[in-house]
TrEMBL record:
Topology of the protein relative to the lipid bilayer: Multi-pass membrane protein
Gene Ontology molecular function: any one: ABC-type transporter activity
Record family assignment: Belongs to the ABC-2 integral membrane protein family.
Location of the ABC transmembrane type-2 domain: 35-271
Transmembrane segments annotated in the record for this chain: 41-58, 65-85, 118-144, 156-179, 191-210, 222-240, 246-268
Name used for this protein in its record: Transport permease protein
Length: 276
């Protein structure tokens, strides 16, 4: 073949988006968690469903109403969102960390993928797992006695579901770059993700808290994710009962994800704790 048919040495042959490589990375990540779907999809769904059972039995007796709806219907959307976010974090927080510990990180960094494509592949796989867990939870809770789920505002369900999962997926990616052992990842899960999720209004209305704790709750980004997601199902939330009232939160979580994405991209480009 004539030498003129080849690009000059050092000039990339793949220009634009490496669609084949990106798809291969995405499928690799999806197949990784699907191989153990009992642990990665169904076990989290069952665990979250147990929250519904326990809290409904403990706090939902006597036809208790919260925001004008039965307690079980109030808490169900928050539990779905909680399960989606936690599993998005768990999925994106594994790949790079496992590669660093097993010495196979070169398999992620050497293929002809840009930093943006690497990030998109990992985040997309995390979103896929989050959506699968969310669908499994929604189906189980819709069939559960006393739970009534209807799509009052579908746009809020889709937006806050994807934005909440993306935020935790980006958080997991940042954690996997920083962590040097699985204990570091577990520490972030146990001392950051779990408390922020459980104290975000999943099981209660923030208006019932003291003013100081209401302020703290409204500084928690998880509060807006869960309340916005609940608004999509019930048409009511701690944020407000109209599209206009929730729109500010929707824009805010989108901006937060852009900031987190820019940070993750910059760290990937620098090779922080990956190439050293």
């Amino acid at each position: 073949m004539p030498a003129g048919n080849f690009p000059p040495m050092g000039q990339p042959r793949i220009t634009g988006i490496n669609r084949i490589g990106l798809w291969a990375l995405y499928m690799k990540e999806v197949r990784r968690f699907l191989k153990v779907q009992t642990q990665t999809v169904w076990a989290p769904a069952v665990t979250t469903l147990l929250f519904l059972i326990v809290f409904t039995v403990a706090m939902g007796r006597g036809d208790r109403l919260v925001l004008g709806v039965p307690f079980a219907s109030f808490v169900a959307p928050g539990l779905i969102m909680m399960g989606m976010m936690q599993n998005a974090f768990a999925n994106s927080g594994f790949s790079l960390l496992a590669g660093k510990l097993q010495g196979t990180i070169i398999d992620m960094l050497m293929p002809p993928l840009s930093e943006a494509e690497l990030m998109i592949g990992i985040i997309a796989a995390a979103l896929t797992r989050a959506v699968m867990v969310g669908c499994a939870l929604a189906l189980a809770m819709a069939l559960w006695p006393g739970v009534s789920l209807s799509a009052a505002h579908p746009w809020a369900i889709v937006w806050f579901g994807l934005m909440g999962s993306t935020m935790l997926a980006l958080g997991g990616l940042l954690t996997s770059m920083w962590a040097e052992k699985f204990d570091h990842n577990a520490a972030v899960t146990n001392f950051v993700v779990a408390p922020l999720t459980l104290l975000s209004g999943t099981f209660y209305v923030v208006h019932d808290l003291a003013p100081a704790f209401q302020t703290i709750s409204r500084l928690n980004p998880f509060f807006y994710m869960i309340s916005g997601f609940r608004f999509g199902f019930l048409g009511i939330s701690d944020i407000g009962d109209t599209n206009g009232a929730v729109m500010g939160a929707a824009i805010g979580v989108g901006v937060l994800n852009i900031v987190l994405g820019a940070i993750a991209y910059a760290l990937l480009r620098s090779g922080w704790k990956l190439k050293s």
